[in-house]
Amino acid sequence: MACEPFADFLQRFKADRQHGASELARQALVWLGQSVTELACLDAAARRALRDQVGQLTAARPSMSVVAHLLQRWQQQLDAVDDAAQLAAAATQLVALSRQAVDDCVTYARQLISPQQTLLTHSCSSTLMRLFSSLRGMDCHIVVCESRPLCEGVSVVRQLDDWDLATTLITDAQAGLYTAQADLVMVGADSLLSDGALVNKVGTRLLALAAQRDNCPLYVVAESFKQRPPAAGEPVLEQMAVSELGHDLPSSRLANTYFDITPADLISAWVDERGVHRRFSPML
Fold it and tell me: What pTM does this model have?
């Protein structure tokens, strides 16, 4: 099957609101790996084009450090290997490494959840979806914020229903009511800053503030690939089309910032492929 044209993949990659950051990074690696197998030769011009594509993919999702991290690791191989087959294999290996890190995160996060507990979450994290899949058969209750404006929480609840997990879908504005009832809050991450602060779907910061007020622990489940190196500077919080808000108002009166930053002091622990950390433990 021929590789999807880069312009089409880039547009779809940039517009994707349903997949988490890790899944999007893996999709980019799969595309790059497939594209190099179709090259006639891996000459200097081809390498320049691939570097440019890595740059465009990284720039397309600036709030997602895992995209930059994994694609830059692949680009290092681009400068080191001699043929396309090796480069395609490097992409496959990074995808496997990412998936293994997620599986290890899930192993440690699952140990924090007990039967008959209520867990509150926000947005759609591919890492948390792996965790929720592992909870099938456990008597627990998962409360999901709808995550405006496109309400990806709805698709989360539909999937959890298919797995026979007890769920409740709530509006984002109800999160502060449910932190008083929940045993724990778990969220994924789009990026982790050098001090442990969390970049995630907008609404996470307010959820964390409510959880702290109600003494409800908040856990961030994210592999270390999502850590943003200090040299990267301040994160860019992506702005999406205001038309997504669905209001008949002038665009100058609307804002659609998709991510916010939750300070580290609102986070109870970070869960990565190495374990549960009550103090942030940077890898980079």
Answer: 0.92
Which residue in the list 190, 260, 265, 272 is annotated as catalytic? 190
Tokens of 167: 């769920």
In 3D space, the residue among 202, 146, 145 whose CA is nearest the CA of residue 179 turns out to be: 145
Question: Domain residues of the chain, as ranges?
Answer: 6-103, 114-277
**114-277, which class in CATH?**
alpha beta
- Identify whether 162 is a catalytic site residue: no
- How far apart, in whole angstroms, are the C-alpha atoms of residue 152 and residue 147? 6
DSSP state at residue 18: S
* CA gap 194, 148 in Å, rounded: 28
The DSSP bridge partners found for residue 201 are: 259
Pick the CATH number of 6-103 from 3.30.1380, 1.20.120, 1.10.287, 1.10.8: 1.20.120
pLDDT tens readout for residues 81-106: 888 999 999 999 999 999 999 999 99
